Amino acid sequence: MGRNSGGVNNYAKAGTTGIAVNSNGRKLTPKQVAKMTATATGTSSMQHRDMEKQINRAISRYEAVMGVRERHVRIADISGAYGVTYIGPNGSQGIYLSRRHFDTSKRKFEAAYKASNYANGFKNVTNRAAQHTVTHELAHATWTSSYTSPKHKAAGKEIQHLYRQWSKDKRKKGYGSYGKTSVDEFWAEVITKGIHGKSDKYTRRAISIARRFKL
Question: How far apart are alpha carbons 76 and 86 in whole angstroms?
Fold first, then answer.
């Protein structure tokens, strides 16, 4: 999977019309959004039940840790990424997962994901490779720097502060390069690490912020 081109933070650009951003940080074109929404189906349509279970487990685990339930998670035809978060100015409009990537066996999915995201140091290594993208996109749905509601803006001040502390910490361990891209990718990756990887002061603080502000 490719990187976020030029370090542009597309999550900060949602504005009042909303935006769809894929798991590599790239904004989808209107044509890509139209194809994604037209081909979207529920996870129950998946042929590989072992991966459907992984998706549902990721959603349940996220709810248990974060106290947040995202009900609109669908499988769709998406090019060049594992998943997409579709966001408006004040919250999620849904999460879409790549049918090509996800509707396969858990064994094949994890082998491909580890090779393209873990082995090269791009993403934080976790114990649940099959659930990583789901949790990452759920975290984006919970908070992005573009959300304008009072609670999201208040939480954002603390998340920005945490991001600056994390960025300056030369001794932190277990993090991939993607979290350095922007505060939004830091947020998604630190939450994912806290839920599926080794907890640390940054993951604990991030989860605490989410729960305290009831994101």
Answer: 13
What's the burial of 174, exposed, middle or buried (CB within 10 Å: 0-12/13-18/19+)? Answer: middle
Provide the β-strand partners of residue 41.
75
The C-alpha atoms of residue 111 and residue 108 are separated, in whole angstroms, by 5
H/E stretch holding 181: none
Let me know if 44 is exposed, middle or buried by CB neighbors in 10 A (0-12, 13-18, 19+).
exposed
Give φ, ψ of 146 to 5 degrees: -90, -15
Give 157: exposed, middle or buried? Use CB within 10 Å, 0-12, 13-18, 19+. exposed
Per-residue pLDDT of the chain (215 residues; tens, 9 = 90+): 222 323 445 544 444 556 888 877 788 888 998 999 999 999 999 999 999 999 999 999 999 999 877 778 999 999 888 999 888 666 778 899 999 999 999 999 999 999 999 999 999 999 999 999 999 999 998 998 988 889 999 999 999 999 999 999 999 999 999 999 999 999 999 999 999 999 999 999 999 999 999 99
